[in-house]
Amino acid sequence: MLHELDREFSYTFGGCTIIRGLEGSYLSTLGFIMQDRINLIYTDMTIAFDENFEAISEYTDELRSAAFDALSEEAILVIAHKVYHSE
After folding, report:
1. pLDDT score of 46
2. How far is it, in rounded angstroms, from Cα 16 to Cα 7?
3. pLDDT for the residue 6
4. Where are the beta strands (DSSP E) in the chain?
5. Rounded to 5 degrees, what are φ and ψ at 57?
6. Which of 38, 43, 37 has the alpha carbon at shortest distance from 5?
7. Nearest to 2 by CA among 82, 83, 81, 76
8. Which helix (H) or strand (E) holds 9?
9. Stronger pLDDT, 38 or 22, i.e. the higher one
10. How many Å is the maximal CA-CA distance in the chain?
């Protein structure tokens, strides 16, 4: 899945950063705190956030759905966050 996201973000947005093997924890559906190794994938989209909010929302929903279909994970987080880059 990491390889596919790497390809997707590279072709769509010009690249991405992948940080593998971070340590994390989450509360399982059974109420237990679970320790887990996680991967963080970051890409920068140079599009107008507010004007394209609907399309960004649909895209992130599709990413999350594809990740759930491909992985046997209990939780997957996809975030789109508006950031100002100073020139």
Report:
1. 86
2. 9
3. 93
4. 17-27, 33-42
5. -60, -45
6. 43
7. 76
8. helix 2-13
9. 22
10. 47
C-alpha span between 20 and 41 (Å, rounded)? 8
Give the DSSP letter of residue 23: E
Q: How far is CA 53 from CA 48, 49, 50, in A?
A: 8, 6, 5
Long-range contacts of 68-72 (CB under 8 A, 24+ apart): 70/1, 70/4, 71/1
In degrees to the nearest 10, what's the CA dihedral of 47, 50, 52, 54? Answer: 140
Altogether, the residues listed in the chain come to a count of 87
Other Cβ atoms less than 10 A from the Cβ of 45: the count is 16
pTM metric for this prediction: 0.76
Q: What is the pLDDT of residues 34-83, one digit of tens each?
A: 898 888 999 988 888 999 999 999 999 999 999 999 988 777 889 998 88
Q: Locate 3 and state its tokens.
A: 């390889």
Instruction: List the beta bridge partners of residue 41.
Output: 18
Residue 10 tokens, joined: 């590279």
